[in-house]
Design goal:
Helix 2 packs across helix 5. The longest helix is centred in the first third of the chain and has 28 residues. The chain is built from 17 helices and 23 strands. The chain is of the alpha/beta class. The strands form seven sheets. Strands 14-17-18-13-12-20-21 form a seven-stranded mixed beta sheet, with helices on both faces. Strands 9-8-7-10-11 form a five-stranded parallel beta sheet, with helices on both faces. A three-stranded mixed beta sheet has the order 1-5-4, with helices on one face.
Length: 544
């Protein structure tokens, strides 16, 4: 087997550091944060191994301190998109013919760099640029990214090791070729690990990539490119551009060698890109692979048998960690009336203990939402809820953007299970709760299944195993990641492959073998050692 022959290190999930007071990792992170705030850096584009600066820049500022300037990021135009494609295609032959174990070594080195000398730097960049607290940055920018890189190598070796059987005198084998062309990766602001994985996963399988990170994630994206370069990713294999989306799309989606889209972002954008690709389908050398993870309107269903403390903890963590800006965040909850008073009491007490503020203060549990546009959208929904006589603000409901884009964790209780905040993705620290009568458990599952176009994550919390079984079966299409007695967030690479269906994406499960298979184009090879030299089969022989 290939894995055994090359002795690929068996992956283990990267341990999460705790950053407790007086810990070594806390001191290192504090130093990296101070260094980041003390200087204004210059973020180039990376095309063909060169740092490209245009002189036209956008300002990068911390969402929790929008008057402070972190960086100036150079912006490109259509010519830079074309240059990135040309660089990728120029690198393609050497990269795809490089032995797979050499590609693996590069990304295993990147993982070790992230686990060691770059850990504090990439976590600090994520804290400053995306307003994540120390723990949220650690589980994302360090641990999950490291896990993606290491586990993907393992999955790649398993893919290559899976070979067909061969009959006597024949050797059958399958070659997993990269796609014929280049892959376009579009990545979001909310997870540094996703940004790194969406370009690294296709590259590991021998593809070349043009990568467009979200403008609000450029500060950490710059560190990702530094890690890739130091790990030995050859010039042109991964090219990072900072170009307006429609401008980039006009070049990429009309290019004959466009071979695949690796996307995480909004459902609307993904659906629009799919239409554009469809309209250009006859122009391409091959049918492009389209892999996308989009939005969610993720639910928690609490049965009458549920432990109220478990429900409350799952909700406050699931809804308010990273300000609810996770695709998997708990944003709608359905709670049995008999346990609602106890759940409500604990939630209010827990949320009252939250500290809200900048990420550099490690006592703050909640930080800022990503942009002023996000802040304004959330404020609008909160104000509408306050004005509606059928909606109660249980806690929170205030906001302030004078220093940073701070929205207080808000819990809304609705009388209508189809109220707007129960249906629409808000992507912020707002949780909507509907209290149902205990005997309406079956009815409420129908409502959950039909309320939202999404199907990303969801959970059932119950002590009654019949209820768990019933919900697991009834809601099987309502969530691609389903949790029992837990919050609907926190998928771990190698443990819970992540992705949803319906309006939430193509469910190709990032951090799994399934995702890597999308970036290969198998070729079956049959070799016959003693080929026949006569067309005649025995059945044609004349009977004697």
């Amino acid at each position: 087997m290939l894995k055994g022959f090359f002795n690929v290190p068996a992956p283990q999930n990267e341990p999460v550091l705790n950053y407790g007071p007086r810990s070594i990792e806390r001191a290192a992170l504090k130093a990296a944060l101070a260094e980041g705030r003390a200087q204004v850096i210059d973020i180039p584009m990376y095309i063909g191994g060169e740092e490209v600066r245009t002189g036209k820049t956008l300002e990068v500022r911390p969402p929790h301190d929008h008057k402070h300037l972190l960086a100036n990021a150079h912006e490109g135009d259509a010519s830079h998109v074309k240059a990135a494609i040309d660089a990728a295609l120029a690198a393609k032959e050497n990269w795809e013919t490089m032995p797979w174990e050499q590609r693996a070594a590069i990304f295993l080195k990147a993982a070790d760099l992230l686990a060691g000398p770059y850990r504090a730097k990439i976590n600090a960049a994520t804290m400053l640029g995306q307003s994540k607290n120390a723990y949220q940055a650690e589980i994302d920018a360090a641990c999950e990214f490291i896990d993606f890189l290491r586990f993907n190598v393992q999955y790649m070796t398993e893919i290559y090791a899976q070979q067909p059987i061969s009959s006597k005198g024949v050797w059958n084998r399958v070659e997993h070729r990269p796609l014929e062309g280049f892959v376009f990766a579009i990545t979001p602001f909310n997870f540094t690990a996703i940004a790194g994985n969406l370009c690294a996963a296709p590259a590991l399988m021998g593809n070349v990539v043009v990568w467009k990170p979200a403008p609000t994630q450029l500060y950490a994206a710059n560190v990702i490119m530094q890690v890739f370069n130091e790990a030995g990713v050859p010039p042109g294999v991964i090219n990072m551009i900072n170009v307006d989306g429609p401008v980039a799309g006009d070049v990429i989606f009309t290019h004959r060698d466009f071979a695949g889209l690796h996307f995480t972002g909004s459902t609307h954008v993904f659906q629009n890109l799919w239409k554009i690709i469809g309209n250009n389908i006859s122009n391409y050398r091959s049918y492009p692979r389209i892999v996308g993870e989009t939005g969610g309107k993720d639910f928690v269903l609490a049965h009458p048998s549920a432990n109220a403390e478990v429900v409350a903890t799952a909700l406050v963590r699931g809804a308010f960690e990273y300000q609810g800006q996770k695709c998997s965040a708990a944003s709608r909850a359905y709670i049995a009336r008999s346990i609602w008073p106890a759940v409500k009491e604990k939630m209010i007490a827990d949320i009252a203990s939250f500290k809200v503020g900048p990420t550099e203060d490690f006592e703050n549990f909640v930080n800022a939402v990503i942009t002023e546009a996000s802040f304004d959208k959330l404020a609008k929904y909160i104000d509408e809820a306050k004005a509606n006589p059928d909606v109660d603000i249980i806690t929170g409901g205030t906001y302030d953007k004078s220093v940073g884009y701070f929205v207080q964790p808000t819990v809304i209780q609705v009388q209508d299970p189809y109220y707007v905040t129960m249906c629409e993705e808000l992507f912020g620290p707002v949780l909507s709760v509907y209290v149902y009568e205990d005997e309406q458990f079956e009815e409420i599952m129908n409502i959950i299944d039909n309320t939202s176009p999404y199907a990303l994550t969801g959970s059932i919390i119950a002590q009654d195993r019949y209820a768990v079984t019933q919900a697991t079966t009834r809601l099987r299409n309502a969530a691609g990641n389903f949790y029992i007695n837990d919050k609907p967030t926190g998928a771990v690479v190698g443990q819970q492959p992540f992705g949803g269906a319906r309006g939430s994406g193509t469910n190709d499960k990032a951090g799994s073998m399934q995702n890597l298979l999308r970036w290969s184009s198998p070729r079956t090879i049959k070799e016959t050692f003693d080929p026949p030299k006569d067309y005649r089969y025995p059945f044609l022989d004349k009977e004697v």
